[in-house]
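ARCHIVE CARD
Drawer: 12
Card no.: 0347
Subject: one protein chain, sequence and derived structure
Cross-reference: see card 0346
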Amino acid sequence: MNKKLKIYSTLFVVVLIVLVFTSTFNYSSMGWSPAPDNKMEFAELPADYMTRDTLADGETVSTGHPYYTYEVNVKSWSRPDHKVLLSTAQGQTYTVDMQKIKIGMPVSRVESNIPMYIIGSGAVVSLIVCFLILYMVLKLIMKIRRGEIFVTKVAKYLEITGILLSFLYLYTLAISYLTTQYFISYIHLADHSIVFKNECNSMYILTGLGLMIISQIILMGKDLKEEQELTI
């Protein structure tokens, strides 16, 4: 077994264990800290979201102002009085636990465009990586159609594709983490806290590491084939 195959196999096992562990266990130490203005309710949009003007003929015209929207994962605070959010409709009552919400903030109140820069740069890099992966896959298909399987270039294309897939997962995870940490620091919600949750597709990194392992197996097959030809 060559050195790269040992490294890639070990990484695959470690990543698989980490993914299973992080998806099974969840730890949170959030508590409830009441504040006078801490509330969540249905209300009309404030003036920085939308203004309403009354014309001379009595008609009301609403003018919406631009605002950013973000989807964030949240967790409700643990209340000491054991109160929960309830939904009652048509004689049936259910507890409601919000885990993901979309928040909106007017452009006029945005203090920093860092989240937009992070998200925008992440989208651009992800698009470039996807084009590179597509290019590698097309090159790989062309080689296989010619009947060239146990050759160095096929192994190289597989390894590069695997590295790109693994990078795409890790980069997307980093962008999600950094953005969430910014929101945790600067955005405060009533009765809820913003939390980080890994929602990246784990198949990217598992498939990537799998392709990297296969690339080394192909190289081993190539070496065995060459040894057999020399023996004959």
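Annotation on reverse: The helical segments are 3-24, 114-145, 152-186, 202-231. The first helix runs from residue 3 to 24.
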